[in-house]
Amino acid sequence: MTEHHHPIPTIGRRTLLAGVGATAVAAAVGIGVASSAEAGGFRYPKLRPGVRHRENVLLLKSWLKMNGYNPSYGSLLPLYDRKTVALVRHFQVRCALTTDGIVGPKTWCALIAHPAHKVTLRRGSRRTEVQDLQMALNARFSSGLSSDGVFGGNTEREVRRYQRMVGLAADGVVGAKTWQRLSIGR
Hints:
Shape: elongated
Order of helices and strands: EEHEEHHHHHH
Strand content: 5-15%
Largest sheet: 2 strands, antiparallel
Helix content: 25-40%
């Protein structure tokens, strides 16, 4: 079976992954920005319409693009503008999330998990989809996982925790039902 690789959002040379060179967004403090979840120094910022913050807004636009949206006009501007708010709201409707345009833990989780190919993952898996899983769990709640692409004991523990939280069988295996819940920010 071949592994699917999707482009990892970057700003210049800095990779925007939790725990993998995420210093680009580690200083997520600014006007209108508050931390939603943290993993190894990486903060998934709570973004509100109108906020201006280069790394955080570009990270949001990168994940929107990976989900099939085109924030082309002004996509390099550090402003969470009306067009980007409209795209976020459309995504939130698509995922049955609260449609407020605010990017918090549930929206970050859905943005990260949604484009992942839905392969079954379990302890011992080593794939890019494991990174997606780890980032989604970090965005959803402060799991503290490093996004190394290795499904080890810590990842299994956090998967079981998440599965219990959303009412799934806590078997530690990420199959269709777990991906489905993650991809809608649950």
